[in-house]
Amino acid sequence: MAGQLTIDTLKASSGVLGTQNGMTGIAKCWVTFTGMGAASVVASFNVSSVTRNSSGNYTVTFSTAMPSASYVAVASGNQIATYNKRGCVSPITYATGSLVVTCWDGSNTACYPLTTYVTDYDVINVAIFGA
Q1: Which residues lie across from 48 on neighbouring strands?
Q2: Residue 120: how many CA atoms within 13 Å on its side-chain side?
Q3: Is 109 exposed, middle or buried (0-12, 13-18, 19+ CB in 10 A)?
Q4: How much is the pTM?
Q5: 88: enclosing H helix or E strand
Q6: pLDDT per residue over 43-98, tens digit each?
Q7: CB atoms within 10 A of CB 49
Q8: Three-state SS for 60?
Q9: From 41, 59, 60, 130, which residue has the greatest number of CB atoms within 10 Å?
């Protein structure tokens, strides 16, 4: 049986969904992609593409735009092939149709928002909540 179920509010009789609208708490978008060379999507939801703008800088384009740019973006990543370094992956530019994230080299004592420390990551993960 194929079909579609449209739900405006998801509630439960107890627990967190008993007091809050569950539809506002689920991820509106998520993606995991490889960032070395041309970005390549591994798995996603509501993502039409990921573009490598320059070293360590990527644009995640949404299939369906967010109603506003006031959403929460969570990002993480890892440089597995490059000495297993970890650093910072930060959402930089929020827009209704896309999000720009930047990766910084974790071999420094801190993640610096300077272009000299921007680097490609093997794996980048992004999730969008809210909006």
Answers
A1: none
A2: 16
A3: exposed
A4: 0.79
A5: strand 88-94
A6: 999 999 999 999 889 999 999 999 899 999 999 988 766 555 666 788 989 999 99
A7: 15
A8: strand
A9: 60
